[in-house]
Write a structure and sequence with these properties.
By secondary structure, the protein is an alpha+beta fold. It is built from three helices and seven strands.
């Protein structure tokens, strides 16, 4: 299993960063390789990805969600992955977003990419795009403030 741990500081309040992260259907705007995300209910999302020419569809479950603190998930089928995103208040206008993902590379290309840190670089680049996306807007495209235990 490969583990990715990356973080970034964004110049928005913690509630703004958190609210944007709960808008899963907007992920294609800042995550390379994510073709679409469809939220089917409060705790389930369907992902369609295309990475290095490989198309995949899978379902994931939100296993824990606490406003302005964390969102955790696990895949239900397809590529085995699970993770958590945490939000840390640095000041009234600055937030640290931390991502931890555990996933099981399947193909030879995925295993080689994980071995050389390509997956870490992808998450770092996606977080930089998230920073650009949310800071340029200054406000989230929406927000879900529900709590999942």
């Amino acid at each position: 299993m490969a583990t990715i741990e990356e973080s970034i500081e964004v110049d928005v309040p913690v509630a703004v960063a958190y609210n944007q992260w709960t808008q899963f259907e907007d992920f294609p705007h800042f995550m390379k390789g994510v073709e679409s995300v469809t939220q089917t209910d409060d705790t389930h999302v369907h992902w369609r990805t295309k990475i290095a020419g490989v198309e995949r569809d899978y379902d994931a479950e939100i296993t824990e969600q606490h406003p302005d603190e964390r969102v955790a998930w696990r895949s239900l089928d397809g590529v085995s992955n699970a993770g958590v995103v945490t939000f840390h208040h640095l000041s009234d206008t600055r937030t640290k977003v931390m991502v931890q993902i555990d996933w099981e590379p399947e193909s030879v290309v995925e295993k080689a990419g994980a071995a050389v840190g390509a997956d870490d670089h992808r998450v770092t680049a996606d977080l930089a795009k998230f920073k650009e996306f949310i800071e340029s807007r200054g406000m989230p495209t929406g927000g879900w403030r529900g709590d999942v235990q």
